[in-house]
Description:
Layout: E1 2-11, H1 16-48, H2 50-60, H3 74-110, E2 113-122
Antiparallel strand pairs: 1-2
Amino acid sequence: xxxxxxxxxxxxxxxxxxxxxxxxxxxxxxxxxxxxxxxxxxxxxxxxxxxxxxxxxxxxxxxxxxxxxxxxxxxxxxxxxxxxxxxxxxxxxxxxxxxxxxxxxxxxxxxxxxxxxxxxxxxxxxxxxxxxxxxxxxxxxxxxxxxxxxxxxxxxxxxxxxxxxxxx
Length: 168
């Protein structure tokens, strides 16, 4: 059976170094996912012929001159995408560490962020003592032979039991 009690916890400080390490990894994964998603999205659009039809449409409505292709340089687009995600990664990591430092400064004045959590503890079910039908075998004895413990090794009670009629 489990017992549940409410416990109040207060977050007073956030370590900036730990925040830097964790946020750098998180934002790097997000930047990598953004680059991979954009490359996959662009390759699907390119294979479907959407950039070519967009250029034809822009030429028809005289938005661009005939013969120009704004989507021709895919390598430059990829470089810009990677450079933008690295810059975004650095800026987001710095912003996260900055927020942690500002939180620490505000926490010194206010006292921290208080949260209430439920703490669950398991209470083991106590079973009554059972009588041992055979003495335990000693793992050091050959072939699992039975070894009787010495009198000094016998279990002794840990509490003295007062007998009725005695005052102590």
